[in-house]
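Hi U.,

Before I forget, here's the chain from the pilot set. I'm dumping it here mostly so it's searchable later in email.
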Amino acid sequence: MKLTSDSLATHLGERLLPAYLVSGDEPLLAAEAADAVRARARGAGFTEREVHFIERAADWDEVRASAANLSLFAARRVVEIRLASGRPGTAGNATLIALLEARDPDTLFLILTPRLDRDAQGADWVRSVEAHGAWVQIWPVDSHRLVAWLKGRCRRLKLEASDEALELLAARTEGNLLAAHQELTQLALLAPAGRVTPDTVLAGVADSARFDVFGLGEALLKGEAARALRVLAGLRAEGTEPTLVLWALSRALRDVWSARGGDRPPAWQQRHRAALEQALRRASRLPFAALARRAARVDRMIKGRVAGDAWDELALLVADICGQPPASGRTRVRAM
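Structure:
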């Protein structure tokens, strides 16, 4: 049987199999899947737990000896086998198959491995796990699904987060689910009445940086290129994450685009009304599609997927959004 991290909870609510293989390179999801199996096993009376770390062939001798030494009055147990790689070798392959086929009702096997490549997935021991138990494949959450994943996590924590807050959180954690989980846990303590806004997400950032991030957005809306570039340089000097700057820039673009179409974006509040009205007056001259593509390119630079200086590109975007591209065609942002 094959399961995913999403389907595991439903499965465990219905039954408990003699063996589970959890494989994947996403630490948070793999740890949560293993914890779910352990908790279900404890509830079924498996009160003891053995852990074996397999790094060399000789380690399998200990596993076999442990399996053979189960006494008549021993408690039911979970035997946890952690493989440093997805290839247990000849000895490990034979040992795992023998243990699984023995079908000891007082032993549940939990096998933890990194992601299994195509060859490892076809190994006999993996097929034996599928025949006698379940293989839980942990897949990474890509950038397109990250906001939805965060929204689901918020529901678990009884948090109500705005789309803007989720997008900012996704940008701050850059796909690191463990970091995102830690941020959400902190937000559960910070969020008044369980409501998460961009201000709440930024609560963990230094006060000066948070003020300047919002100040940058206002300068962009007003078209104040010189002020925006000064703020940008200050943010860089303070060590502010470029993802926060990109978020502020992208939010300003979205607000202008939405307001141009007659919508009332989140920024349409008293403190932003005048700035947004100024932005609308020059909106017809803004190449929104091109600016959005360039913002996406900056995001890839920040993540190291394309070459380039993200701060220099951010400076060019700031100048262009303000409608005042630098005469030299290039602006460098230097730390103060």
